[in-house]
Amino acid sequence: MLSVLRDRTYRHLFLAQTVALTGTGLATVALALLAYDLAGGQAAAVLGTALALKMTAYVGLAPLSGVLARRMPRRTLLVGADLVRLLAALVLPFVDRVWQVYALVLLLQAASAVFTPAFQATIPRVLPQEGDYTRALALSRLAYDLESLVSPVLAAALLTLMPYGWLFAGTAAGFLLSALLVLPLRLPVDADDPDPDPDPDRDRDRDPDLGRDCDHNRDHNRDRARDHNRDLRHDHHRGPARRRPRGPASARVLGVRVFLATPRLRALLALDLAVAAAGGLVLVDTVVLVRDGLGRPAGDVSLALAAYGAGSMTVALLLPRVLGRTGDRALMLPAAGTLAAALGLLAAGLASGWAGAHPTAAWPALLALWLCLGAATSAVLTPGGRLLRRSAAAADLPGLFAARFSLSHGCWLLTYPLAGWLASRAGPAASAAALGVVALAAALAAARLWPRRDPEELAHAHPDLPAGHPHLADAPGGGPVRVHVHAFRIDALHRHWPTPVG
From the CB of residue 42, how many other CB atoms can be counted at a distance below 10 Å? Predict the structure, then answer.
């Protein structure tokens, strides 16, 4: 899995992601302590509002990333977002009003809503080979899992040496390092990039530190050129009169519309809802279950969350090998069913009173359940990028990743308050039961929406195109409706998913 780090460009991007995530984890701890200082007993309400603002920024502003990615060089976009986040982190220690916290959190998360989809859409351009991209997805998931484990421990160690306000300095340092790692790179460009790089392979030169040889670089660049030329041919088939418009309308068509028109992506959205149901319960209700339900000390809350992260990290490490044998659908759908089953088991244990009557046995059972939830979550989330890559041309990926980022966080915007409100009003058992129903419904919907047979190339017809249209050049003659076969994606010439043609 670590072999992809031999690629200098990807290595810099991965390190940038890692240090930025570490800084974000420090900010999470510092923000909780700041809210307590400002609001005392109302700190939970402050944090809940801040979390809602975070999700609102992700849902509302992530589509802007697809627009900006078409109008700005990718490197400028990523570095600019990091600098905005750095500024917000530096100002946070000096606020003395709750509304100031809300404003700065909204600014920071708005920049993250621009950065993250643009970053995700860059990776398949850097690593065009399917195997390399799958390893990169696993490493990205691993980075998120390590952040959930390492950042709280690092924050606890730093708090023994300094006031919590200095944690925001660590956050700013993470964003600064991220920007410095991205700044020297020449990132691969889309066909309609506003600032094409005349030498996109400069960073592919031999890396003496890792002993990377020139033959590997030539093979890699040849594969990139082949994929690039294929995308250009696909654009040519669209015809000059059907070129995509640029701007917000184009981003909507290439993002949300592609999701709604592509069966496997509609299923992916349902799977994201199942993940949000399980993750919302874990992140919101763990403290209630551990402290009040089982009477455990505060440190055990961290252990429970660590078990969740450990399960996710383990699957992320094993996933590249597993996906090569099972495929995406055969892995992701059972994993979503596992999320629903685990939530149902938790609801039954709480509603029956077993957990309260057997707290000694309930604690390891909770750890095992959280480990299972983390593993199933990773099995659903990690392959998601592969589905996006199959479903759009390379130039359209920024809009598609931005749409997925926004839509998936919309799921979290639903499940976070649902988990918190039900746990506080009706108890954790009701929260687990309701979210289990949500996860089960989402898993069943995904199984129905995702065809069992889902080839990339589909036979289809274009009755609305004239016989001489360039897109039909490879279609055999002999019939009023000419049928041809190619990798099918929703675009200007393919606005609806085809029904089988004989």
Answer: 13
**Short-list 210, 233, 293, CA closest to 487:** 233
Q: Do the Cβ atoms of 431 and 296 come closer than 8 Å? A: no
Angle between helices 74-91 and 8-39 (to 10 degrees): 30
Question: What distances in angstroms separate CA 411 from CA 65, 109, 210, one per listed residue?
Answer: 19, 17, 42
Collect all residues with Cβ–Cβ distance below 8 Å to 276 and sequence separation of at least 6: 408, 411, 412, 414, 415
**The tokens of 364 are what?**
């390891």
Per-residue CA distances from 468 to 18, 64, 239 (Å)? 51, 37, 11
Instruction: Please indicate, yes or no, whether the overall pTM of this predicted structure exceeds 0.70.
Output: no
Q: Are 244 and 393 in contact (CB under 8 A)?
A: no
> CA 384, 385, 387: angle at the middle one, nearest 5?
70
Query: Mind listing the pLDDT tens digit of every residue in the chain (502 residues)?
Result: 577 788 888 888 889 988 888 888 778 767 766 765 776 545 455 656 676 777 787 777 766 766 777 778 888 889 999 999 999 999 998 988 888 988 998 898 888 888 887 887 788 888 888 778 777 877 776 777 667 656 656 766 776 788 878 888 989 999 999 999 999 888 776 544 444 443 434 333 333 333 433 344 444 444 444 444 444 344 444 433 334 434 443 444 467 777 777 888 889 999 999 999 998 888 777 777 887 788 887 557 767 877 887 888 788 788 777 776 778 888 999 999 999 999 999 999 999 988 878 888 899 999 999 999 999 998 998 888 888 888 777 767 767 777 787 788 888 888 887 887 787 778 889 989 999 999 999 999 999 998 887 766 666 666 677 766 766 666 665 555 567 776 666 666 666 676 655 4
> Whole-angstrom Cα distance, residue 275 to residue 213?
41
Contact yes or no for 117/407 (Cβ under 8 A): no
Angle in degrees, 0-180, between the axes of helices 130-159 and 359-381, rounded to the nearest 10: 140
CA distance 268 to 441: 13
Say what angle helices 299-326 and 130-159 make with each other, to 10 degrees: 170
| 491 half-sphere exposure, CB direction, 13 A CA radius | 22
d(CA 475, CA 393): 21
The residue among 203, 181, 187 whose CA lies nearest residue 20 is: 181
Residue 254 to residue 63: CA distance in whole angstroms: 10
